[in-house]
UniProtKB/TrEMBL annotation:
The keyword Transferase applies. Residues 9-308 form the Orn/Lys/Arg decarboxylases family 1 pyridoxal-P attachment site domain. Its cofactor is pyridoxal 5'-phosphate. This is Aminotransferase class V-fold PLP-dependent enzyme. Gene3D superfamilies: Molybdopterin biosynthesis moea protein, domain 2, Type I PLP-dependent aspartate aminotransferase-like (Major domain). InterPro entries: Orn/Lys/Arg_deCO2ase_major_dom (IPR000310), Orn_Lys_Arg_decarboxylase-I (IPR052357), Prn/Lys/Arg_de-COase_C (IPR008286), PyrdxlP-dep_Trfase (IPR015424), PyrdxlP-dep_Trfase_major (IPR015421). It comes from Anaerovorax odorimutans. Residues 379-389 have a biased composition (Basic and acidic residues). Residues 414-468 form the Orn/Lys/Arg decarboxylase C-terminal domain. Residues 379-402 are annotated as: Disordered. Belongs to the Orn/Lys/Arg decarboxylase class-I family. Keywords: Aminotransferase, Decarboxylase, Lyase, Pyridoxal phosphate, Transferase. One of its GO terms (molecular function) is transaminase activity.
Amino acid sequence: MDKQKTTIQFLMEHADKRPVSFHMPGHKGASLYRRLGYGEFLDKFMDCDITEIPGADNLFQTEGILKRTQERYAGLYETDRSYMLINGTSGGIIAAILASVPAGGKLLMARNCHKSVFNALTLGNIAPVYLYPELIEEYGILGAVTPQEVQRAMEEEPQAAAVILPSPNYYGVCSDIRAIAKVVHRHGKILIVDQAHGAHLKWLGRGTGPVSAEEAGADIVINSIHKTLASFTQSAVLNLNSDRVDRYVLEDKLQAIQSTSPSYLLMASLDINADILEQQGTELMEQWQGNLRYFYEEVKRIPGIRVIDNLENFDYSKINIDTGLLGISASELENLLMERGVFAELTTGNILMLMTGIGNQRRDFDTLLHALRDIREKLGNRERDREPGKPGAAAGGNAGRAPEKKEIFAIPKAKQRLALERSEGKICASSIIPYPPGIPLICPGEKITAEDIRYIRSLRAGGEKVIGVNENGEVTVGA
Ligand SMILES: Cc1ncc(COP(=O)(O)O)c(C=O)c1O
């Protein structure tokens, strides 16, 4: 990394390269707004950066323009209420959990939940009870949380007040939310779905793909509009569709954990996204779906490029390439794509994930296909020896590895920082989180194993960011 570069220099140079984005955010740059008729907003960008002047409403007590935007979302998602979030889905998740689980209570949660869920546990003094997702052996990635797993956990922990799980997960695997909602509601509890990666599910591939968690009956659903739709990074929407949650408590938690100076630029971009969906949503979704269909057809013709294309209840707007047949790792493919101006979202082991969004155009898919053909040609025939059905390296990855069912110990009160290498057998006191995908590999209260240490070392050696290991290579454990 060039240490001399400033943030703004980096951003300007990156923009000048005109990169093809298959990562967040979903708008993929200014051209979407300009094409669809919102260029004037971009031209007046700084002048729109205001605070709560008269007439501008207040996010935490909406009565005017912001209320109207929120009502647009409630209409679009067909829910009782929608709340704009300016701290991303992360903020919505924390507020939803604090509103659903009493302090000191228990939460049933998928072990592959995002770190914001773990942060909510700390803030609310809440104890986790883990639901373990399945492993999809063929690709070595984490699969769905089954209704049976939820049923088992609910019987074991009748005290738990709520259930939370991500759907889709980072790769696109969706859980059967309709069936899970039935189980949760039969027990009189609250179902929260982290739909950070599926804000588009209500519209994209309607009738053929997974249904949105709103339609499937979840009580609270949180959507990162910025990840796949057309608003700015950090803007999101929480949908409340239930009487099981006290809305006043939820609203209180939302104001407690978000900035008291919510950005009107973020909220305006949410309003623009609502406008886009209302005015041009059908056409844009058809184009997006058509481009995906085109890509999946074309990519089949490139030998050695294997994509996930055979899973049910899967969000195919996430393109997952299994690099096993290419004889290179996902991060090597990421670099080769980057050299060709294409930027991916996530790599774990053998799986490279490209996140498409509402702003991607046919030419982006063509550039990607062209780059893949070129890479394949340059690499030649280096098919890797891999036993069919055996998970690739991604299975050893964090999100790719079915989280081990570990014994949960009390979170240590007395803490120390210790070199990672010397931490075997110690109880973790602060989450260790490879980022992305931001799912804790080791949670507070779990024992660190020799295998964990080996894996974290390999991630760091590969240049990946691991939050929870400081610049001196130390982790926080029980003293
Ligand atoms: C599964 C999952 N949930 C929640 C979040 C947080 O979303 P946001 O970036 O909108 O805060 C992320 C972020 O990547 C995520 O991957």
